[in-house]
């Protein structure tokens, strides 16, 4: 039987991949259904099945990438990738952005489905728990589309509910007024691209970040467009935003319907749109839950407690 071998030159990384007492290797063996052998700085399996070899390669590559990127808990990395069971997900859901500081991987099956949905639909609604990766993955996929020249421009918007959307009464220039509300979008981009790259793209007008109020009257063609915090749009604002979509564009809408800041009698545009547009060909709908949260583990417990309270 042919042996398939992967070399991991860095002994520190190899130790993380194997885990304490080779516990991580046992998890991989259980998933693949065959033994994994460790000899020196080599990991190998004995199989002629190309799909098993590809799964093995993907798992090891991902753990090595994330350990090199600073992730310390390789057990969590392995369990997250093993939870993604569909064969297609393993090949098609990592996000490789040209010039990025790291490769982006889904941490759950729902996140993998979200990435696939963004690639197979021209419009995707993603709603769910805080910290589940809604905005981050949308920004990463959008940057990939921009930097691989599949789209000409990236436009990211947010409703500025706390500032009444007019922004006129706030002190300072426009940039000073809106920066606190748009800061998370800058953070998402700077997490995967060098700061100078983001600045260069913005100076070249290839990336624009603006409040939702500034979208009115525009048609955005050959672009990837993101609406973040969409739960805080009204029905009218959501319709206005969705109809900005021009020829050759993709639109990603993200939000958390448990954190609506609108007046009680005003229906959320996100809630209305996900109900009204569900089932239309070309529009994807993805819901993320507490199980998809990738922040501090305590955040997952908090989100789950609130979800359980809502269901009870």
How would you summarize this macromolecular structure in one to three sentences?
The chain has helices at residues 11-18, 23-32, 50-68, 74-82, 87-92, 109-120, 134-147, 174-190, 195-203, 235-242, 269-276, 297-311, and strands spanning 3-7, 37-39, 42-46, 123-128, 153-158, 207-211, 223-227, 250-255, 283-288.
Please give a structural write-up.
This protein has about 300 residues and is an alpha/beta fold. It has 12 helices and 9 strands. Strands 6-5-7-8-4-9 form a 6-stranded parallel sheet. It has a 3-stranded antiparallel sheet with strand order 1-3-2, covered by helices on one side. The radius of gyration is 21 Å and the shape is globular. The model is unreliable at about 160-165 (pLDDT under 50).
CA-CA gap between termini: 55 Å
Beta-strand residue percentage: 15-25%
Would you tell me the structural class of the helices and strands?
Answer: alpha/beta
Largest sheet geometry: 6 strands, parallel
Number of helices: 12
Q: What series of H and E elements makes up the topology?
A: EHHEEHHHHEHEHHEEHEHEH
Helix coverage percent of residues?
40-55%
**Mass-distribution shape:** globular
Strand order of the largest sheet: 6-5-7-8-4-9
